[in-house]
Specification:
Number of helices: 7
Shape: globular
Largest sheet: 4 strands, parallel
Strand content: 15-25%
Number of domains: 1
CATH class: Alpha Beta
Helix content: 25-40%
Low-confidence stretches: none
CATH architecture: 3-Layer(aba) Sandwich
Distance between the termini: 42 Å
CATH superfamily: Uracil-DNA glycosylase-like domain
Radius of gyration: 15 Å
CATH topology: Uracil-DNA Glycosylase, subunit E
Number of strands: 7
Length: 164
């Protein structure tokens, strides 16, 4: 089945871009990034800033932007059964040239898991990321079997780069 990603969450103040692969089934049903209740993305983001996770999705979006964090997916559309990244077929890539020219303050790109990084590095022109720093973080997906605290330790790196 062909699926499509969401538009970016970004504004002119964004310094950090977090990239996933493409939303899973639950996220697509809810029309929200990281909508699966067992995905640890929102819990990690809020914990990084010592805050309690909001239930309201619009408040979550504002929280990201307030902290200069943009969010998007590498894949614009693809064919996939279920939610596993390993099932992604024929990925079409989002327009990163447009994103980076419109939002030049984005200097740091963090990949939420290895599949997002793999597709990005294979499909996106290296010239588009010249001068930007790229990092892979452990996936927040419930399929990734390391502990919350272990994931959080890696994700805290984002805060360091927001200070620059």
């Amino acid at each position: 089945m062909q699926i499509h990603s969401f538009g970016p969450i970004v504004d002119e103040n964004s310094k950090v871009l977090i990239l996933g692969s493409i939303p899973g089934v639950k996220s697509l049903e809810k029309n929200q990034y990281y909508g699966h209740p067992r995905n640890q993305f929102w819990k990690i983001i809020y914990t990084m800033f010592d805050e309690k996770v909001e239930e309201d999705y619009e408040k979550k979006v504002r929280f990201l932007l307030t902290h200069k964090i943009a969010l998007w997916d590498v894949v614009k559309s693809c064919y996939r059964e279920g939610s596993l990244d390993s099932n992604i077929k024929k990925p079409e890539i989002n327009d990163f040239g447009m994103l980076f020219s419109k939002y030049p303050n984005i200097k740091f790109i963090f990949f939420n898991g290895s599949k997002a990084e793999e597709i990005f590095k294979r499909k996106v022109d290296k010239e588009l990321v010249r001068g930007k720093q790229l990092f892979r973080l452990p996936s927040t997906s419930p399929a990734r079997a390391i502990s919350f605290n272990e994931k959080l330790k890696y994700w805290m790196k984002i805060k360091e780069y927001l200070k620059e």
